[in-house]
Amino acid sequence: MAKGGRGDLEFSYKGDLQFSYKIEENSFKFHASCRHTHHVIDLVLDLAARNSISPDEVARLVVGTYRTALDIAGNPEPQSAFAAKFSLPFCAALALVKGSCGLEDFLEDSLCDSEIRRLAGRVHLEIDDESESLHPVKWGARVEVVTVTGKSYSARADFPRGDPENPLDDQELIAKFCRLAGYSRSEEKVETLLQAALHLEDLQDIANLFP
């Protein structure tokens, strides 16, 4: 048994202490849009990749999720690049056309893209009973893609990628770090910052990261 105290306060414990660090529950936003769109983007990208679905094959895209996501990100006709980040129809269409939803994808060119707008108009939003009943414990969604030939592909997820329950792998995190840091830093500086971030425990002074 070990004992410790501070002033008049004393404590004692037996065995090993078990600590839970909140940083281990952190989420990483993989897409440059509202978090309530991420699970849908993930599912659209996955379905398109696994089934080789091209944008011109899509006749209808059904998105079912919890009510809060529809309230916040149900905008069918965003009028700015910023508003597009809060539009499930736009984000789903953008994912199909661009294959990603990064900062470089949410530009005025994308907002005015006729193919993206056409696909966004084919997105149907609805409340998914299972996702609604489990939210906010889970952040779920169901997506169904129906093609012009009548084929149907569907999938669901309980958490967006990047959540601790559905983590990104190291290479995905590194790729996002390099992509974002590259907007304002040289390739050499990005690599220096990356290596420092990957080995923070070896830094003698964190200030050295920011000369």
Explain what this protein looks like in three dimensions.
- The chain has 2 domains: 35-157, 2-Layer Sandwich (60s Ribosomal Protein L30, Chain: A), CATH 3.30.1330.120; 170-209, no CATH class.
- The protein has helices at residues 38-51, 67-73, 81-84, 88-98, 108-111, 114-120, 129-134, 170-181, 187-198, and strands spanning 2-6, 9-13, 58-65, 123-127, 141-147, 152-157.
- A hairpin with a 2-residue loop joins strand 1 (2-6) and strand 2 (9-13).
- 36% of the residues lie in helices and 17% in strands.
- The protein has 9 helices and 6 strands; from the N terminus they run ββαβαααααβαββαα.
- It is α+β, with helices and mostly antiparallel strands and 211 residues long.
- The strands form 2 sheets. The chain has a 4-stranded mixed β-sheet with strand order 4-3-5-6. Strands 1-2 form a two-stranded antiparallel ribbon.
- Helix 1 runs parallel beside helix 4, helix 4 crosses helix 6 (114-120) and helix 8 crosses helix 9 (187-198).
Largest sheet, in brief, is: 4 strands, mixed
CATH architecture group name of the largest domain:
2-Layer Sandwich
SS field, number of helical segments: 9
Structural class: alpha+beta
The top-level CATH class of the largest domain is: Alpha Beta
CATH superfamily of the largest domain: 2-methylcitrate dehydratase PrpD
Q: Output the CATH topology of the largest domain.
A: 60s Ribosomal Protein L30, Chain: A
Shape: globular
Please indicate the count of domains: 2
Question: What portion of the residues fall into strands of 2 or more residues?
Answer: 15-25%
Mean pLDDT: 91
